[in-house]
Amino acid sequence: MWKVQLFELNYDHREEEAVAQVLKSRWITMGDQTKNFEEKFGAYIGASHLPTAVANCTAALHMALLALDIKQGDEVIVSGLTFIADANVVKMTGATPVIADVTSLEDWNVSAGTIEAKITSKTKAVMIVHFGGVPCEMDEIVKLCKSKNIALIEDVAHAPGAEYKGTRCGNFGDLSCFSFFTNKNLSVGEGGMVIAKTEELNSKIKFLRSHGMSTLTLDRHKGRAVTYDVLQPGLNYRMDEMRAALGLVQLSKLDEANAQRKAHTLYYHKLLSEFQGVKIPFQNTSEKKLAYHIYPLMLPGGVNREAVFNSMKDKGIQTSIHYPSIKSFTAYREELKDSFTPICDLISPQELTLPLYPTMKKNEIELVVENLDKAIKEQA
Ligand SMILES: Cc1ncc(COP(=O)(O)O)c(C=O)c1O
């Protein structure tokens, strides 16, 4: 159906063989592959504690809030321009999500300033997202959270491999959460990872992942344990061995894949620099290494996004939206109707995301840009 899809997997025989090996081993639930993936991922990020592989990033974020004992009566600040999981998990704990505006039409991340504007006596945590793989201004955000004694959660779903002043994203939060969903830079279908800053939080996360049990199914299978105790209430948010095996292969490809994404992004920048009125965010990102997760832009005011989307679709080009305003969703409309986020309110209705993936070809990028040009001109 599509000539150019929004995203394509960079899978080859290595992913196929990794999964086949797991199937041949006859052990498919959390075990040695998962442990190996956690160790390698932790080493890659430079984490101080062994990460915890989980079912997905939504589970990771939920666990992070539970580990911080966030509950009814607490407020958690989330970005007004992020995936709905960030607000949903806060609601699931009974706490209240409060949305912070992004910095400017050029910088679509929250900042210490936009966060501080939303802090109240009830604020217990801030959940930042490195939008599109661009690190937030972490020095200022970490300083703010410390000075106000507020926990910091990093949503690193877009940013595995991104760095702020030489430190990889995932090392700044009290807890940091990654997504390995299909369209992510490191893709296993469904998967995630939690990195905790302290031993205490790390221990809570490990128990939350698997029913609060003191031993693993694998320990009992291998005869290393007879039974188990339940040390605290928990969930089943485990990853399985097939996905961990995919994760190991994908991790080994991550740096090269991010470099390919970078080259495609720069080519888009070059071709789009002649477009009148189209705003490309994050053009000034010195001191940061980006993960180039998506290619977002803002259509000129007055251009009907749905018409552009449909015109592109008719030409076989898939586009997307990052993100619809949280305030626009039925589940949040009433609760958030008075939230003041003027910059997000300008971005959300005009945002369009172009296809971006490591294996993309130059002529595909050219086709996307050509058709975007036509689609915008049809509107003039
Ligand atoms: C910024 C952000 N946070 C959280 C999530 C949730 O990730 P998952 O699909 O792994 O639960 C996503 C995934 O789309 C995301 O983009």
What does this structure look like?
The chain has helices at 13-25, 32-45, 57-67, 85-92, 112-116, 138-148, 199-209, 217-221, 241-272, 305-314, 330-336, 342-350, 362-379; strands spanning 52-54, 75-79, 96-100, 123-129, 151-155, 163-164, 167-168, 175-179, 192-196, 288-289, 295-298, 351-354. It is built from 13 helices and 12 strands. Pyridoxal-5'-phosphate binds at residues 56-58, 82-83, 85-86, 129, 155, 157-158, 179, 181, 192.
Summarize the structure.
By secondary structure, the chain is an alpha/beta fold. It folds into 2 domains: 13-250, Type I PLP-dependent aspartate aminotransferase-like (Major domain) (Aspartate Aminotransferase, domain 2, 3-Layer(aba) Sandwich), CATH 3.40.640; 254-379, Alpha-Beta Complex (Aspartate Aminotransferase, domain 1), CATH 3.90.1150.10.
- CATH structural architecture of the largest domain: 3-Layer(aba) Sandwich
**Biggest beta sheet summary:** 7 strands, mixed
Unreliable segments of 5+ consecutive residues:
none
Annotated CATH topology of the largest domain? Aspartate Aminotransferase, domain 2
- CATH level 4 superfamily of the largest domain: Type I PLP-dependent aspartate aminotransferase-like (Major domain)
- What sequence of helices (H) and strands (E) makes up the elements? HHEHEHEHEHEEEEEHHHEEHHHEH
Strand order of the largest sheet: 1-9-8-5-4-2-3
Compute the number of strand runs.
12
Cα separation of the termini: 28 Å
| CATH level-1 class of the largest domain | Alpha Beta
Q: What overall form do the CA principal axes indicate?
A: globular
Rg? 21 Å
Percent of residues in helices: 40-55%
Q: What bound compounds does this protein have?
A: pyridoxal-5'-phosphate
What is the overall number of helices?
Answer: 13
Number of domains: 2
Give the class from helix and strand content and strand pairing: alpha/beta
Strand residues, percent: 5-15%
Average pLDDT works out at: 97
